[in-house]
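User: Show me an example of a complex going from sequences to structure tokens.

Assistant: Sure. Here are the input components:
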Amino acid sequence: MDNPNLPSKKILLETHQRIKPFIHNTPVLTSQLLNEVSGCNLFFKCENFQKMGAFKMRGAANAIISLSEEEKSNGVVTHSSGNFAQAVSLAAQKLGVKAYIVMPENAPQVKKNAVKTYKGDIIECKSTLQAREAAANKIKEEKGATFLHPSNQDEVIYGNSTAAMELLEVQPELDFILTPVGGGGLLAGTALAAHHFSKKCKVIAGEPMEADDAYRSLISGKIETNETVNTISDGLKTHLGDRNFPIIKDYVDKIIRVEEHEIKEAMKLIWERMKIIIEPSSAVPLAAVLKNKSEFKNKNVGIIISGGNVDLKNLPFV
Amino acid sequence: MDNPNLPSKKILLETHQRIKPFIHNTPVLTSQLLNEVSGCNLFFKCENFQKMGAFKMRGAANAIISLSEEEKSNGVVTHSSGNFAQAVSLAAQKLGVKAYIVMPENAPQVKKNAVKTYKGDIIECKSTLQAREAAANKIKEEKGATFLHPSNQDEVIYGNSTAAMELLEVQPELDFILTPVGGGGLLAGTALAAHHFSKKCKVIAGEPMEADDAYRSLISGKIETNETVNTISDGLKTHLGDRNFPIIKDYVDKIIRVEEHEIKEAMKLIWERMKIIIEPSSAVPLAAVLKNKSEFKNKNVGIIISGGNVDLKNLPFV
């Protein structure tokens, strides 16, 4: 039975049309060697080649386009030090909207610089979640800016769906699509796309064992959190939210947990064999496939490479 | 007037057909950001995604396929510690031919391992050119193996042509194609392809200032060599040969020399902005475009990304 909050196929198609001028239809790459290693046919949707280097551009663009003219004139605000901060900054810049980015004062300079490149307005605060939320709330009140959530907002989730929609256009016969799961926005969006645009494609997530809140949430039936998050996959340390969890619960087949060394090995394989730059989070789905080879044997398996923003000075596998 | 040694269009088309089962038709990538930085429309033919990670697979495959059955049964030999060694090993393996690879005993273990992965038979020798040639000659005499040259052999040059042929199939309206120049095999092959498959496309090479033998050869009209080769572009330290120089003299428009810091900056741009892994030699053409921006302004410029085999532990730009 369909989830009552489920967006229609039409809504997703309209979302794709709406954001197309602001995103790349990224290439789908294959690798004979990785097919041999994994025993299945892998199709990598390369969102590391997306504008600003990650799928987050899709959701950010959709969220900002969806605002009223009055809302747009007051700007948007988010608190993030990662890819969503860059995505909101770039999408806002392209749409002529002011972007306020709340970042912890100890965020790496490289991340601050990336936001500045896209003309985001950085507001520094203490590094606690409370301080970040307080700073964002202050901007909302003072400027009338609209808060954008990186993963738990319908417009963001629907925007994220478009990566899997494009993948299924190129490879309609997929048996599986795998994504990483952190905040749940990409996983939920992918599950919606597979539900509407494929008859048989199951959606599976890879998750670091060290931050396995989503895995535990599917078991307990409620949103679980992590006490510690000792993973190199810095995009996957957050937990699910009330907008994406119902979709994940209904339309995601399973979550496969992987160890840190498995993430590093998968990352190294993709760098060395595919010659593409991916961030650690993006290696998690391949690590999941390699861990459960028999499940995927001879199947057509799509993998969303979520992003390629990585500190080249500090690679985890060399 | 046509060079009398010039292969016909038909020969190049047959070459492409012949090697197709053994190579990838690699993707052509674009980057809006690099277009903005350079002021022209760049089309990157990604031979870093080629089998074994470099365009050398094309020439090696063609050279081995072109042998007689008797020659094939006696194997092939080359002396190289770079991409050609891997290419010959892999092409020979796929064609069921024995490959003898003469390598200096002090070659990096990672390069020896790559050859072993493809089942090449490594013969170690002292690291001088004389020792390498003597070792290769010994194999020729003892085993009857055919010597394959990495850049100065017609079959290798014609095989290399197929990269630019594929690029021109996808982008027929190119004004320029740029390649790096080392031994001259890729540059000559690209010039042949542009001559036969484009009406207007000029071919230009980028060359490190620190190993500018090809630039000086075009001026003097004879093959020049380098006294020193202090460049990070380890694939570009060799000099032209008597088979490729006549083609380069007749069909290459010019050679643009670039400094080491320009190569590093171009390499960094491609890694960080395009999220693809390229070796230093592959950054030389973009460095040449960025050095001579006015020449390429608003033009359609193809660049052959020659390969992606790089030591991740020792990146020159981080």
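The lines above are the inputs; the final block is the predicted structure for all two components together. Chain B has a mean pLDDT of 96.
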